[in-house]
Design brief:
Length: about 90
């Protein structure tokens, strides 16, 4: 080890630059959610869990409101059927 080091030409910042089209952020994700994505990446034979999270968010973005409404209608019908009611019936 040297007694002194010359950092006069050193640069501050990230060691690896963020590629174009990407933004580095800090986000808090529940442990169980993060564990699930890490497990999925591991079971797929490796890869990046961050890429999986990005893909899941992109899928949600492109799902569209119409598909979400259709899914909600299915869930509501299933729940009403559990209580013996048909769509449109009131208590």
């Amino acid at each position: 080890m040297r007694k002194e080091y010359d950092f006069s030409k050193g640069k501050r910042g990230a060691v690896i630059r963020t590629p174009p089209g990407k933004t580095r952020i800090t986000i808090r994700i529940d442990d169980d959610v993060l564990d699930w994505f890490r497990t999925q990446a591991h079971e797929a034979g490796g890869g990046n869990y961050q890429t999986l999270i990005n893909a899941a968010l992109r899928e949600y973005m492109t799902m569209g409101r119409e598909q979400l409404e259709k899914r909600l209608r299915v869930v509501i019908r299933e729940e009403l059927a559990r209580y013996g009611k048909k769509g449109g019936e009131k208590d």
